[in-house]
Amino acid sequence: MVKEIWNENISREEERDIFQKKISFPIGEKNPYGEFFIGQSYLAPVSTDQVPVFNVTFEPGCRNNWHVHHAKNGGGQILICIGGRGYYQEFGKEPVEMSPGTVINIPAEVKHWHGASPSSWFAHLAIEVEGEETSTEWLEVVTDEDYNKLK
Q1: What's the pTM?
Q2: Which residues are within 8 A (CB) of 113 and not within 5 positions of it... i.e. 6 or more apart?
Q3: CA gap 81, 72 in Å, rounded
């Protein structure tokens, strides 16, 4: 699928520029939380005033580690796919394929990961749900063995 979309002779930067033209929000800079990702991701703040909203963009094959959004009350996260193809998976459940328009509501205290498909760039808006005493706990990586089972 990558060959159908991307020319093999172009650089990652050129691929990034092409993908940027397909989405409505800026890709941003290299993700400062990169230590919790396999592969390259980018982060761009969309809004930080009332509700924190960020665009997170993943290069093909990039995914974040398993993690949990903790909260004493409320909290969690909402993901809205804005481009490409990716996955969301809760621990112990089957992965959910995400394409533009897919909305995922993640309650607090749910172990999960999200990221690009092996063959596509992927971008989602990440909306932080207001809560009391919120934090994110980063856990183990999503293994290549598990990730490579994706379609």
Answers
A1: 0.92
A2: 63, 64, 65, 66, 67, 88, 89, 142
A3: 27
* H or E segment to which residue 135 belongs: strand 135-138
C-alpha distances out from residue 130 to 20, 69, 75, 99, 116, Å? 29, 11, 5, 25, 26
Q: Where are the domains of the chain?
A: 2-133
Q: What is the pLDDT of residues 91-105, one digit of tens each?
A: 999 999 999 999 999
How many C-beta atoms surround the C-beta of residue 47 within 10 A?
Answer: 11
What's the whole-number average pLDDT of the chain? 94
The three-state secondary structure class of 19 is helix
Length of the chain: 151
Q: The domain 2-133: what is its CATH number? A: 2.60.120.10
How many C-beta atoms lie closer than 10 Å to residue 52's C-beta?
Answer: 15
Q: Encode burial over 70-104: b for 16+ CB neighbours within 10 A, e otherwise.
A: ebeeebbbbbbbbbbbbbbbbeeeebeebeeebeb
Surface-to-core class of residue 145, CB atoms within 10 Å of its CB (0-12 exposed, 13-18 middle, 19+ buried): exposed
Give the bridge partners for 136, in sequence order.
69
